[in-house]
């Protein structure tokens, strides 16, 4: 945004004001570092003070770097009833709306940008092929600075991908595949390096499990990730428990982030309390560090100016808002992000799935019979109470979990639209829609299981060994 003092600051939301103050602070620091003329620096400082005053007037809070407005992750769905609010943070997703979280409101509250038709068309022009159906269908719906990544790509400048997985259980479910399937596509069409962080340290700190079990889950999850088809010559998968002890660059970036984020800030961003262990408080810096290329000197030849693009579910955004605030202060480029919607539980879109509830999703270890039983028994229906009513009034695809799952996994756009029309009109019954989903998921999971069988411990070791990848920097 322009720094014009004529801008009507009263029209900005608290989050927009917060972003303006942050941007202006970055500008002041850059002007001072570049020894700009005194009058130019003074004007920028006056604008910064004006923005901070507007922020305090609007929010009742003093601006604190890295600490967005306190109501940032509480989204009201148009009512004043507490039970109608969406709660989104890295560990919880709750909504009373059967359609799921209101993502348009989440974009406004988080201050990200909607992935619109213009951006999708630009991606198509850049890569010379049709965009992934996750983009076409709004499954990846929000971004930060994707336009900058495309600028770099079009100007032959490098970038890299970073995503991750918190290994909380031995078996992953199909929802866990979403970021990896999309990241694999991004890696192939842009031909860039990829780093995948396994946060086994996080799961040890948050879950009731031993450190040995967390590490075991990380290696088991790595096999499922590798089975998605990643290229070992272009992909580095690492366990925090392993890599932190071997990479000076990684640890130095962690310490730099830690120095620039206060305890009050992480409490405000993540909701930590005085009773939380200090490991939780320091963990956000560990998730931030892979955003910087200098954390991987073996891949990037020690360069610290390679921009990072992070595909992730939007509940992980608080980590990277913090990271983006810190990055300029430690001389690093801000990571860009692509945010996905949440994958719904079989029982409905009100919550994320739980790895501890075997009936909340389809797991990658499920048999064809288990898949059929789970879908038939537990998949929330948007159909009517009776066949007669359904034929007359039709079903509701907005809340029907079988249709939601097909939106993720049925690649044929025409077929998906036919199913939507038939179900909405009442021509297609709930049982018939579930049958289509069963016939889609059974071969998909079976094929994944076959690929996973081919992933040996030696292959895992190859992916997880710090090394140079097939790129020159």
From TrEMBL:
Transport recorded as keyword: no
EC number of the protein: 6.1.1.2
Lineage top rank: taxon: Eukaryota
UniProt cross-references to InterPro entries, sorted A to Z: aa-tRNA-synth_I_CS, aa-tRNA-synth_Ic, Rossmann-like_a/b/a_fold, Trp-tRNA-ligase, uS15_NS1_RNA-bd_sf, WHEP-TRS_dom
UniProtKB keywords: Aminoacyl-tRNA synthetase, ATP-binding, Ligase, Nucleotide-binding, Phosphoprotein, Protein biosynthesis
Record-level GO cellular component terms: cytoplasm
Gene Ontology biological-process annotations: tryptophanyl-tRNA aminoacylation
One Pfam family matching this protein: tRNA-synt_1b
SUPFAM superfamilies associated with the record: Nucleotidylyl transferase, S15/NS1 RNA-binding domain
Domain WHEP-TRS: 13-69
Gene Ontology MF terms: ATP binding; tryptophan-tRNA ligase activity
Class of this enzyme: ligase
Family (UniProt): Belongs to the class-I aminoacyl-tRNA synthetase family.
Cross-referenced PANTHER family: TRYPTOPHAN--TRNA LIGASE, CYTOPLASMIC, TRYPTOPHANYL-TRNA SYNTHETASE
NCBIfam families, sorted: trpS
Entry protein name: Tryptophan--tRNA ligase, cytoplasmic
Gene that encodes the chain: Wars
């Amino acid at each position: 945004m322009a720094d014009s003092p004529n801008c009507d600051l009263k029209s900005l939301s608290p989050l927009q004001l917060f972003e303006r103050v942050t941007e202006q602070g970055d500008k002041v620091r850059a002007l001072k570092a570049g020894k700009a003329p005194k009058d130019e620096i003074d004007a920028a400082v006056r604008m910064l003070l004006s923005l901070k005053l507007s922020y305090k007037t609007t929010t009742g809070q003093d601006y604190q770097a890295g600490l967005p407005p306190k109501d940032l992750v509480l989204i009201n769905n148009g009512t004043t009833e507490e039970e109608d609010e969406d709660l989104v943070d890295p560990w919880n997703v709750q909504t009373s709306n059967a359609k799921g979280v209101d993502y348009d409101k989440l974009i406004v509250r988080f201050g990200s940008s909607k992935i619109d038709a213009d951006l999708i068309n630009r991606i198509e022009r850049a890569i010379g092929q049709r965009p992934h159906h996750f983009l076409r269908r709004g499954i990846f719906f929000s971004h930060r600075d994707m336009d900058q990544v495309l600028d770099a790509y079009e100007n032959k400048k490098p970038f890299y991908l970073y995503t991750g997985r918190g290994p909380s259980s031995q078996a992953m479910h199909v929802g866990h595949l979403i970021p990896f399937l999309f990241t694999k596509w991004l890696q192939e069409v842009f031909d860039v390096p990829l780093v995948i962080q396994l946060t086994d340290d996080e799961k040890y700190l948050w879950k009731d499990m031993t450190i040995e079990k967390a590490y075991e889950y990380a290696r088991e999850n790595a096999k499922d990730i590798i089975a998605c088809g990643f290229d070992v010559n272009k992909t580095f998968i690492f366990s925090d428990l392993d890599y932190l002890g071997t990479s000076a660059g990684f640890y130095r970036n962690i310490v730099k982030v830690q120095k620039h984020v206060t305890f009050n800030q992480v409490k405000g961003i993540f909701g930590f309390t005085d009773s939380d262990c200090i490991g939780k408080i320091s963990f956000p810096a560990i998730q931030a560090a892979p955003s910087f290329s200098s954390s991987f000197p073996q891949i990037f030849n020690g360069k610290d100016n390679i921009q990072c693009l992070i595909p992730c579910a939007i509940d992980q955004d608080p980590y990277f808002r913090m990271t983006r605030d810190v990055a300029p202060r430690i001389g690093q480029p801000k990571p860009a992000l692509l945010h996905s919607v949440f994958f719904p539980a079989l029982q409905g879109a009100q919550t994320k799935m739980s790895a501890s509830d075997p009936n909340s999703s389809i797991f990658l270890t499920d048999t064809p019979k288990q898949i059929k039983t789970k879908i038939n028994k537990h998949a929330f229906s948007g159909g009517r109470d009776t066949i007669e009513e359904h034929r007359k009034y039709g079903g509701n695809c907005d809340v029907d979990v079988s249709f939601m799952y097909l939106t993720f996994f049925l690649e044929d756009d025409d077929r998906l639209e036919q199913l939507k029309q038939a179900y909405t009109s009442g021509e297609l019954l709930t049982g018939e829609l579930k049958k289509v989903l069963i016939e889609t998921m059974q071969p998909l999971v079976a094929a994944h299981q076959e690929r996973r069988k081919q992933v040996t411990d030696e292959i895992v070791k190859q992916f997880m060994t710090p090394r140079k990848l097939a790129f020159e920097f």
